[in-house]
Specification:
The chain is of the alpha/beta class. It is built from eleven helices and 18 strands. The strands form three sheets. Strands 1, 10, 11, 12, 13, 14, 15, 16, 17 and 18 form a ten-stranded mixed beta sheet that branches. The chain binds pyridoxal-5'-phosphate. Pyridoxal-5'-phosphate binds next to α9 and β9.
């Protein structure tokens, strides 16, 4: 059919928006701080390789991922430049990260020694030391120990001390007291570290911290969510000068008249209260459109909002488009994005089911093709 997307469900990603968001973030940076763009989890569901390239073109000088396999996939696709693997690594993953010429994070002397053994005759492993200032996941909570690890790294010719980092637990909770406390802890450590190792790159801020407090910028910020035009504070990204990069579309697969009392979907969790028209869209939780959205979100069809009704199933959802609707198979449906004058933000979808925008885009499955636009 002409004009009908070939995909049953489609995520359109605007690389122009990714670039604009990178430029907007860079415009906020203080003291010459660099932008490291986080493309873990396949670029928060947007596509790591394409978003990495767009970010680099827009001035991001570093990239970061969580897993060594993600670093290897970026390199295999030809992505160059400084790349940080932020997660804890198994022995095999350590080899993968080094093979991908990715920097690794270290906080234990034992791991520093094991890493040095792995390097052999290759180029020195590039290391970032991690201080846990309160996230309580990775890193050492003891600044003296972090300094000791930095010394081990700096003195071993098989290792290169490149950076030092921490990660904030509550940067996205405006006005909380824990964030400034973490920031002070890192700043104290950073001063001591700098005195011994002047060239080390200090980095702490995620998107929320970057936007919330310039004092958190140090030499580099690590932004993920904001790069994709998602609001770290779960509000409207436009208020922060960000533009959502992802549009999630489907098409009407069937449009049928329902007499009052007719039910739709598994468990009959919705029935028409009046005669109406119900559109079936070929998208479901198999695509990442979460089952918790059953009877609890809107979809844009024909430039207007309509309620999703009935149970979200693996492959389909049903939408009550109203008795007067002139909806026909092949019509475009927008689940995240704009149509006509209407807009559905990822943040709205997330709020309805008690989660955050990150989880919605990361949750889109491989069955949803991603297409890229300038
Ligand atoms: C994911 C991650 C980031 C990016 O966080 P956003 O909130 O998406 O900006 C930064 N640093 C670390 C250590 C992370 O794990």
């Amino acid at each position: 059919m002409d004009g009908v997307p070939s995909a049953r469900a489609l995520a359109r990603v605007s690389l122009g928006a990714v670039g604009d968001n990178c430029r907007a973030l860079r415009g906020r940076l203080t003291g010459g701080a660099e932008l490291c763009v986080v493309v873990k989890a396949d670029g928060y569901g947007h596509g790591a390789v394409e978003c990495a390239r767009a970010a680099q073109e827009a001035g991001a000088t570093w990239l970061a991922v969580a897993a060594a396999g993600e670093a290897a996939r970026l390199r295999a696709a030809g992505v160059r430049g400084p790349l940080l693997t932020m997660g804890s690594l198994t022995r095999d993953e350590t080899a993968t990260a080094l093979g991908a010429d990715a920097d690794v994070v270290v906080w234990e002397p034992a791991y520093a020694h094991a890493l040095a053994e792995r390097v052999g005759a290759g180029p020195p492993a590039r290391v970032h030391v991690k201080l846990d200032t309160g996230m309580g996941r990775l890193g050492t909570a003891d600044p003296e120990r972090a300094l000791a690890v930095a010394r081990i790294v700096a003195e071993d010719p098989r290792l290169a001390l490149v950076g030092a980092m921490t990660h904030f637990a509550t940067a996205d909770e405006r006005g909380d007291e824990f964030f400034p406390a973490q920031l002070r802890r890192f700043a104290d450590f950073a001063a001591a570290l700098r005195a011994e190792h002047p060239g080390v790159i200090l980095h702490a801020a995620n998107s929320a911290a970057t936007m919330r407090d310039p004092a958190s910028h140090f030499d580099m910020v690590r932004c993920g969510v904001a790069v994709y035009g998602l609001d770290p504070f779960q509000g409207d990204p436009a208020d922060s000068g960000l533009r959502p990069a992802l549009t999630l579309e489907s098409t009407v697969g069937a449009a049928r008249r329902f007499a009052a009392g007719t039910s739709a979907g598994y468990g009959r969790r919705w029935a028409a209260e009046r005669d109406t028209v119900v559109a079936t869209l070929p998208i479901g939780y198999g695509d990442g459109w979460r089952r918790a959205l059953t009877n609890d979100c809107d979809v844009l069809i024909g430039g207007r909002r309509h309620p999703l009704v009935g149970t979200v199933s693996m492959d389909n959802v049903t939408v009550d488009v109203g008795p007067a609707a002139t909806v026909t198979p092949g019509d475009l449906a927008v689940l995240i994005g704009t149509q006509g004058g209407e807009r559905i933000l990822c943040e709205e979808v997330a709020r309805r089911i008690g989660t955050i925008n990150y989880e919605i885009t990361c949750g889109l499955t491989a069955r949803v093709p991603r297409t890229y636009e300038p």
